[in-house]
Structure formats: C-alpha cells, structure tokens
Design goal:
The complex is a heterodimer of chains A (331) and B (367).
Chain A lengths: L6 E12 L2 E12 L3 E5 L6 H8 L7 E6 L2 E2 L4 H7 E4 L11 H11 L4 H15 L14 H13 L5 E5 L7 H16 L3 E5 L3 H4 L4 E6 L2 E6 L1 H5 L9 E7 L3 H8 L5 E7 L2 E7 L4 H10 L6 E4 L4 H19 L10
Parallel strand pairs in A: 3-8, 3-9, 6-7, 7-8
Antiparallel strand pairs in A: 1-2, 1-4, 4-5, 9-10, 11-13, 11-14, 12-13
Helix pairs in contact in A: 3-4, 3-5, 4-5
Chain B lengths: L4 H14 L8 H13 L7 E7 L4 H12 L3 E6 L3 H10 L4 E5 L3 H6 L7 E4 L4 H22 L23 H31 L2 H6 L5 H29 L9 H25 L3 H17 L12 H6 L4 H15 L3 H30 L1
Parallel strand pairs in B: 1-2, 1-3
Antiparallel strand pairs in B: 3-4
Helix pairs in contact in B: 1-9, 2-7, 2-9, 7-9, 7-10, 7-11, 7-13, 9-10, 10-13, 10-14, 13-14
The chains are: A alpha/beta (331), B mainly alpha (367).
C-alpha cells in the first residue's frame, strides 16, 4: 500500500461525565487502519466508558469520535455495522452450540441463506472452531470461548474489533494462539482495539494508549514511549543486573544513593540510576553482601517501566494538588 | 425497526427447547389449578362441633340431631362442662359448641322460651358466618315446628333462584378466575426471568453492540412466551372444563381472543420488572409484589364490592381484575362482546401504557 495509512478511529477531546464524576476527561487519539491498539489502565480509569462511546452505546458529554469516518453520536447504527466486540466475561449463549451461536449472530447482522452459510464456515475455519461446532458454548474451555466470541464478532466482516481483556484467565498456550490469530487479522487490515492487564501483551501492540484517572496520559508506539524523557529522566540510565540470589541482590541495591528505582524482572534486577553511579560502585554494593554479579548491562526501559514511571508522576502531581491525600506514596 | 426479530425468536425457541424448566410449562399450571380448584371451597360443611347437653331429654336430642342433619355441623364430641368445651374450641379441635341448659325440655313443655347457647370460633370468619346463619335457621325451623306451623302457612315466602351456578359450587366460581391469576403469574415471571437472565449472563451486553433493534429483542422474547401463555390458557381451560366440569356458556373464540389481549399487559409487566431487577432473585420478589394484590384485590378471592373505597379503587389498577370479569362473564354467564366491551377497552388501555412504559425503560436500561 502506498501513501499514508488511513485513520480508522479518530477521537477528539472525548469527555463523559456522570453527574459530578468525570469518567473520561478530554481524551484524544487516533488509531490507524490495521493497527493493534493496546488500551491500558487500572480498573475504573475510564477504559470501558471510552469503548462504550466508541461503540455508539453511550453518548459523550462533549468531544467527538469517529470510526471509519462515521460519527458515533450521529450514526451509531452505521458504527455497529462496522465493529465487532468481544466482552471480558463470556457473553454468548451457553445453552446454544458453537454453531448455533455463530448462526444467530450472523442472522442478527442480516446475513441470510448462502451468504450466512459461507461466512459461518469462514469464521469457523479461521477460529479453528470446526471440531467443537456441535458443542454447547457453555461447555467450552476459556480459550475456546474466546475464539468462539471472536468468530461471532467477525461474521459481518467488521473493520474494527473491540476486544475487552480477551486473554484474561486463559492458559498461556491458548493466549499465544489467540495472539497469533489477532496478528493475522491485523495483517488482513482489521483494526484491533484491545484492552489488557498483561504487560507482555502490551509489547505486542503496535500502538498503546494508557488511561489513568480519566485522562489519557500517554499514547504512541512502544518504542516512542520508551524514549519519553519522563521514563528515563535526563542524567539517568537503566541497567540490568544478573546476580544470584536476585532477591538478596535487590535488597542490597535499594535505597542506595543515586538509585532512583530498583525492581526485580524475572531473574534480573532492573535499576534506574544516576549517571554518576558507576558499574564499579554497583559491584561494590553487591560484593558487600558477598554477591558477584554475572552481568551488568545498559538496557531500554520496558513498557512496564513506562507505565510505572508515568503513573507515579501523575499520582504525585495529583497528591500535590490535593494536600492530605496520599497518592502512590508506598515507597 | 424490527431488525433481527426472527433471529431472536428462533434463538429463543432453541433455548426453550433446551431449558429443563420447559418440561414444567404444563405441569405447573396443572398443579396450581388442581390445588386451588379443590382446596378453595366456601361451601362450609362438616364443622366439628361439641355438644354439652345438660338436659339429656328427647327434646334436647332432637335439637342436636337438627344440627347434625343440616350437614353443616358434625357433632364430634360430647362434653360435660363449660371449661372442657372452652378448651376444645381454644385447641381448635371443634369450632362450634352447643350448650343445652338443664331446663331446656321443661321450659319447652311449659310453653316458656327456652334458650340454647351456641359458641362459635370467630378465628375463621367464613366458617363463623356460615355457622351463625345455619344455627339461627335451625332455631327458626324447630320453633316453627313446635308452634305447629309449617313454612307453607307463613304469610311471606322468599324464593331465591340462583342463576348460572344453581348448585353454588365453589369451584365454578373460583376455577375460571384461577385461569387469570395463574396465567398472569406464569407470563410475568417467565418474561421477567428471560430478560434478567440475559443481563445476568452478560449476553445482553453482546446483543446491544450489534445492529439488532431494541424492539426486536423485546418482541422476539415476547412472542414465543405469548405462544406458551396461549397454550397454557387452553390447557387450564381444558382442566376447568373436564376436571372441574365447568362448562363454557359463552363463545370460546371470544374467550381466547380476550385471553390473548390479557397476555400482552402481563408480558409487558414482566419486561418492566426485568428493567428494574438486576438478578433473578429480585425479579422473583417483584413478581410476588404484583401477584399479591392480583390475588387479593382482583375479585379472585374476595368480592370487590365489599372492599373499603380506597382499596376498591386500587383494584381498578390491576389488569387481572378485568380479565377475571371477562372470564366469569363468558364462562359462567355466557356474556358476549356487548357486555364485555368496557373491560376489553380497559385491558387495551393497560396494554398500550405498559408496553410503552416497558419499552421506554428497556431502551434506557439496556444501553
């Protein structure tokens, strides 16, 4: 494809208030066609309110949102024809078989006769549901339930798929398979809007938005976010240290002068340190507890680091504004 | 406006076919009809009665026999004192106590007025009313006989003739109305549950992101349940006709059409409940909240004419009140549309209001 990739979702100053409470506060972002947009944030931050507005279920208090150029407020029905949605909990009919669910949603989307049969076969093949066609949806395992939900959401060939925590509570193999399916759909030009709590999954997204206390505090591609100055403040660098036992090593590095942050990441320790802290000094600190590090190397921040840094910053800012209310001050 | 209606109906039928509760669609009304139809009987018979006969004469025995012969009283106990009789009544073993004084026969023979005391347990007002009436009647007839008079020689005779239910069989009065009460209960709970279940299981959330219209969701659920409701109506009417022997005097077709009309406000009431209740337990409670006045104030159990004015007016707000009038009118009195048009109009009004209200609330709640 030549030229600019078209914008599929455009959100401008989207705001939704419930009484005095502002659930979504002036959120703006764009998602390009074929993107996998990872939408993150703690529970209650406003994620689902944004999704409900984008699906045309909830009218914004102010601001605008358009999906494939269709205004979600003015033409919610046209939006519904363009989107597929899978919810966090299983929300298909447990007492219908996989096939009956697929056919029901096909009919709902206005598919009939030969077209319905063809599309039902296509999504069944795509999701790999074939073997479980005749099984009651309620008796499927978590991973297969998600695949069935995805199949039902794909019947009408939507341009955008909203997936609310699609991998919550399913086993790692099913999770990997599901992501492979999502990558395939993205390669086919579908735009995916995914919410998740798993940090490793955010690394798989082509674009990330992070919503915290009703505000979108960051939005961009993962590599852009990792280079944000707030994440690695000027005069600081990030180090990864391999040492055994890691927990003891971590304790010996915490609360040292020049160490801004220390955390365990798998078997390694991730440090955010002042540039003046040399590798020698770190080795000294560790040797004091008779630990010899097997490796010390400079690294890029992970997305988890990005979220932690930005959330802390935002929390301390709000705490400053409202004296007496402690925010994120757990040390 | 009705996009996806047939898809929803078809899905609903698939689910009904698989729902184990569907097996009881006819069993529940059958059990309810049989229990209510046989249990509710206001013809008071065989009231357990205790007798304390201090006189023990031929006259006193004739009096006690008179009580027994009416069929209303069963003399189950002879007691020997006032205290014993009181205990019998307090314990509930007997409801009526007849006390014949020692000088009963002596006074009768000497031409004086003899007094017989009848104690009646007022804790069951229906039994007490009947017992009082029957006891007074026994006194009158026996007095007339002693005075050498027969009722034929009295100057005035009242000849009551009961139309439509000449034998005053209680079940003929109750069972037709029972059709209305049971039908309302089943349709209200079925619909309320059907929608609340979709919300509870999250499937409603999935439906609303599709282009299916709200009306299609509502009607798609209503129509299959309306069909079940109609089938139940026919079934209960069949039980009424063949088990309780209540013949339908009027037009069966009119009865069925007006039953269909009554189903609509009941189903709409069910939807209304489903827009308020968040789970099935709440829906059940609300259904009961509607059922109580429907049973007590609709004229099903107690005549509305004797209710105090505010309650009487309240009873006008209950759809089943009108349906019961229609049922009794057509089944017992053979009434036709010429007589039932006011009730029909009111039901149509209820239908319009309730459907509009439930659809409106449904629209709001669902988003």
């Amino acid at each position: 494809m030549t030229g600019e990739t078209p914008v599929m979702i455009a959100v401008e100053n989207l705001t939704r208030r419930f009484g005095d409470f502002t659930a979504v506060d002036a959120v703006s972002f764009e998602v390009k066609r074929g993107a996998i947009f990872g939408f993150l944030g703690p529970n209650g931050a406003g994620k689902s309110t944004v999704i409900r507005m984008l699906c045309g279920l909830l009218a914004p208090t102010s601001g605008r949102a358009a999906l494939d150029g269709v205004d979600v407020v003015r033409n919610p029905e046209a939006v519904k024809q363009r989107i597929g949605y899978t919810s966090q909990q299983f929300s298909l009919y447990a007492d219908l078989t996989a096939e009956e669910n697929i056919r029901f949603f096909g009919r709902i989307y206005g598919l009939r006769g030969a077209l319905l049969r063809r599309r039902a076969d296509e999504v069944t093949d795509l999701s790999g549901m074939g073997v479980y066609r005749k099984r009651l949806a309620g008796q499927l395992s978590g991973g297969w339930k998600q695949r069935l939900a995805l199949a039902c959401a794909l019947l009408h060939s939507p341009k955008v798929l909203f997936l609310d925590e699609p991998t919550a509570g399913i086993d790692p193999v099913a999770r990997r398979d599901l992501w492979d399916l999502l990558f395939y759909l993205s390669s086919e030009g579908k735009t995916l809007f995914v919410t998740t709590h798993y940090m490793d999954e955010t690394e798989r997204c082509s674009q990330i938005g992070y919503i915290y206390m009703s505000k979108l505090i960051i939005c961009g591609e993962p590599h852009e976010l990792k280079r944000l100055p707030e994440v690695t403040p000027p005069g600081h660098r990030r180090l990864e240290i391999e040492a055994d036992p890691p927990t003891v090593a971590l304790e010996s590095l915490r609360r040292r002068e020049g160490v801004a942050d220390a955390t365990l990441f798998g078997h390694a320790i991730h440090l955010l340190v002042d540039e003046r802290v040399t590798e020698e000094r770190i080795r000294d600190w560790l040797n004091a507890r008779s630990i010899e590090p097997s490796a010390v190397r400079e690294i890029e921040p992970t997305l988890e680091d990005v979220f932690v840094m930005l959330t802390r910053r935002r929390a301390s800012e709000t705490a400053d504004k409202r004296p007496g209310v402690g925010g994120g001050g757990r040390g | 406006m009705l996009r996806g209606l047939f898809a929803v109906i078809y899905k609903e039928i698939l689910q009904l076919r698989r729902d184990p509760a569907t097996k009881f669609i006819f069993a529940i009304p059958a059990i309810q009809t049989i229990i209510f139809g046989f249990a509710i009987d206001l013809d008071v018979q065989h009231i357990p009665t205790a007798v304390w006969d201090m006189d023990r004469s031929a006259e006193s025995r004739r009096l006690v026999e008179g009580f027994h012969n009416t069929g209303a009283f069963d003399v189950v106990r002879e007691v020997g004192g006032g205290e014993e009789m009181r205990r019998e009544i307090v314990a509930g073993r007997t409801r009526v106590g007849v006390i014949v004084p020692q000088d009963y026969s002596a006074r009768l023979l000497s031409g004086d007025q003899a007094a017989v005391q009848v104690l009646i347990d007022g804790s069951d007002s229906v039994v007490a009313t009947n017992a009082t009436l029957t006891a007074s009647l026994i006194g009158q007839t026996q007095s007339l006989a002693r005075a050498g008079l027969s009722p034929k020689t009295l100057p005035l005779e009242v000849r009551p003739r009961v139309l439509f239910n000449p034998d005053l069989i209680g079940s003929h009065f109750y069972v037709p109305a029972l059709v209305g009460v049971i039908l309302q209960f089943l349709t209200v709970t079925l619909t309320a549950f059907a929608i609340v279940r979709e919300r509870e299981r999250g499937t409603l959330e999935q439906l609303v992101v599709t282009p299916v219209s709200r009306w299609a969701i509502v009607l798609g659920k209503l129509l299959p349940y309306a069909a079940i409701g109609m089938a139940q109506t026919v079934f209960i009417l069949g039980l009424m006709r063949f088990l309780f022997g209540v013949e339908i005097q009027g037009d069966l077709l009119l009865l069925l059409s007006l039953s269909a009309l009554f189903l609509l406000p009941s189903l709409a009431l069910g939807i209304l409940i489903s827009t308020i209740a968040t789970n099935q337990a709440q829906a059940m409670q609300m259904a009961f909240l509607i059922m109580l006045p429907s049973v007590l104030l609709s004229g099903f159990a107690f005549p509305r004419e004797t209710m105090p004015p505010p309650i009487f007016w309240l009873s006008h707000l209950i759809p089943v009140t009108y349906y019961i009038q229609i049922l009794r009118g057509i089944i017992l009195r053979g009434a036709g549309m010429w007589a039932l048009w006011p009730q029909t109009l009111v039901l149509a009004g209820f239908t319009a209001i309730l459907i509009a209200l439930s659809a409106l609330r449904f629209q709001k709640r669902i988003a």
